[in-house]
Fold:
Amino acid sequence: MVHYVHPIMIHHLKRIAQNNTPRWVVLTIDLLLTAFSFGIASLVADAFSYVNFTALDYIIPLFTVLSFRFFAFVSTKSYTGIIRYTSTQDAVRIFFAVAISTFLTLSLEGVYFIALGKHFLKPGVIIIDAFILITLLSGFRITFKQLYNQYAPSTISTVNKEVIIYGAGEAGIIAKRSFEQYTKYSRKVIAFIDDNPKLHGKSVEGIRIYPSNLNLELIITSRKSVELVIAINNLSPSRKKKIIETCLQYAIKVKTIPPVSAWINGEFSPQSVKSVRIQDLLEREPIELSITKIKKELKGEIILITGAAGSIGSEIARQCLTFKPKKLVLLDQGETPLYELDHEFNRAKNVEVVIANVCNTARIDKVFQHFKPAYVFHAAAYKHVPLMEDNPYEAINTNVFGTQNVANIAVKYKVKKFVFVSTDKAVNPTNIMGASKRIAEIYIQSLNSKLKLDSDNHTKFVTTRFGNVLGSNGSVIPLFRKQIENGGPLTVTHPEITRYFMTIPEACQLVLEAGVMGKGGEIYIFDMGESVKIVDLARKMIKLSGLKEDEDIEIKYTGLRPGEKLKEELLNDQENTIGTHNPKIMVAQVSEYNYIEVNELINDMYQERDNLKNSHLVRTMKAIVPEYISNNSIYEELDKKTIES
Structure:
């Protein structure tokens, strides 16, 4: 139904949008309504006869009632609320104001009647007046609010977004009211969507509730700018993903509200609404961790994390801190990110920051000697495939020699458990980075086997292997985001390239779980879900940004980078897995290596590292890892020579 609103009213609504109505104006209107209500009540109750009637017979009782009402309005501050933001709290204030003034008026009437034996003002008039006045005061505020919400936003702002709220529960209703109140954000709620069949077809504050299987096109037809706000915090990742995918088909922007616990002072603000991230489309069901067991192992212990300033290391640190360790030692060679992490933890007393290079034997020895850690999470590594392809020396120095160095010192100082963070690129490696991590895996596992033969009481070495981590430093998601901000193009190496993805918290949770459950010597691999096409990620990020492929931004294929392969693997052809108590974690059954042979090869390479050319370093790597076959790299020549010989 279309209501006609006079241009003068629209003009006043515009002015109100810029300036709130003065309190004295609201109080004046309330008093005028009080006088009007009293007159109606007097007529309804037939309180006056026209015989010997004088103006004083009406004015004196009216003045008395107005005085009591004025006192009550001021006492309860019922006129101080901003009318366009009228809420239940304002209605309660009105009720108490009328109730207090009515009680005072009845009390005066009672005293007057007892003293003089006649009515100053009939009780019936007072009671009827109270009901009429509550209706008038509340109706005035609600009517004004509705008129303002319906007409003011469209005349005030040039940006008038229409909103569909997913979730007709308490959070959804609060979100609706907030959108209506804060005209700065100019959002008009046009529909609710909810999974509860009992709510379908009903309305909330005049807004209809639709079923979740509704064709969104029916709602958004002829509408230019529509957003969908998810107002259900405990929505499952699979359900959220389906909602977002559906909205992307219709170019509907999707946003979420924060959990109730994150609302400022318990109040929701439209400013806190956030756009969904690409991570929301790749989330899986929450991982069930053995929290009790992890806490039992780590509580009160000294934990050392190498590479602590990186994406994985810093998240491991955050999660470890929740288990109340005796001391958390954060080691990294990156000064600035380590400084920022230290401040994030508010320079906690049980957190120590150490700047050091894992390749520096003397320095790492001093760190272990001083702190005597019981648990080590080794996340320090060079990880960027193309860069390491150009810098094999640095890849080997940090990923192989650095890992060997920290592992040997951990044994020297009798560390309980050493958890090595590896990668799926170590499986059938096609690049230097993956091969260097595989050599580190081999060393870690062979060292554990040697120690196991020597003694039952030894440092237990555990390896964790997973794929790409969403949002980690230098990963594809931040790259795409930056390219979108710059207007494109989005660069994808190949239309068929796929990768496994995990979120940073998810990966670190599994590292902690595997680290605690490990008995030593295992290589744990994680359930990475389905591999994802990188080009599909690019397209979804374009849509999530409210843009259109080719029209607003293009996708450009640049060709595979040196050492890059189309599809990553979690196991090679000779490896199998066995399950664990956690269905998300499996143990890879890999070939075992002799420690003496492996250590000799690595030590020989270490002794000659400064004299060897890159090709000689890579050739030695291939000798240690026979399945290492270079791809799209200058080192493919070494594989050809091996085949020919």
